[in-house]
Amino acid sequence: MTYRCIAQLQEKADNTALLCRLLGVSRSGFYAACSRRGEPARVCPTSTHLRAAFTASGRCYGSRRLRAVLHAQGLRVGRYRIRTLMRINGLRPVWRRKFIHTTDSRHGLPIADNVLNRHFTPATANAAWVSDITYIRTRSGWLYLAAVLDLYSRKIVGWAMAPNMPAELVCSALQMAITQRQPPAGLIVHSDRGSQYASEAHRALLSRHGLTGSMSRKGNCWDTHSKMVPNVQPGLTRAGIGQSAFALTCRPGCGVPRALPGRSPVT
What we know:
Shape: rod-shaped
Radius of gyration: 29 Å
CATH class of the largest domain: Alpha Beta
CATH architecture of the largest domain: 2-Layer Sandwich
Strand order of the largest sheet: 3-2-1-4-5
Largest sheet: 5 strands, mixed
Oligomer: single chain
Strand content: 5-15%
Structural class: alpha/beta
Number of helices: 11
Number of domains: 3
C-alpha cells in the first residue's frame, strides 16, 4: 500500500527520494516493488500437483492421503506444508460420514452360538470367516455393502452391494466367497446378530455347504466391525466410491472392482 501511494504521488512530484523518506521506505525497495508488479504471478508446482490429486480423489482426500499420493509421484512434501497449501488453495474435503444402524437384533429368529469366541488368528486359510454390512453415502443415496473376510489372510473373499439390506445381500456375499474359495465343511462364518444373518435363507446357505454359523453376543458388534473396517472402509467407501454417482448401478470397472475381488453382484 505504501509503494502504491508513492507511485501515485510520483505523478505530482518528481522527488522520489523525498517521498520515500517521508513514508519511511527505501528507494531500492520502492523500485524493486515496481519491477515485481510487471512480473507474472509465480506458479507453485506443488500446488498444481496437489490440486490435481485432490480433484482425482473426488475432493475427499485429506492431508495424510494427499501426502502419500504426492510421495508416490516423487514429490517429497511434508504433511503440514500440504495443509498450508490446501488452506491457501481452498481445498476442503467434502466427505461427511453419518452413522446408520445396520444391525437389527430385535427379532425372533434363531441365534447361533459364538463358536469363534474371539479367536481371530486361525492357523490356516478358510478356517474362519467374518461377515458384516457397512454403508456408503453417495449422490444417488445410501449404498449397502456386505463383505466376507478370511481371518487368516485378511482378504475380502466375497462381497455384494444393494440400495437396501435384504437377506439376499449377505447371501450373495457369502455365495461369492464359497464359489471363489471352495471351503471345507466346518468352516466358521462369524457375524453379528442382525436379522439378515439370522434369516432362513442365510442359515440354509450355511447348512447346504456344511458351514458353521457363529454370532457375537448382543451388543458386541465390534467383533466383526473391527475386523472388517480396516480392510474395507478407508480405501473403498471414502476414496473409492464415496462420492460416485453410479452407486445404485454398480457397473464393473467403475471403482469397486478395483478394490474388491470378483464381479459386482447387485441384489
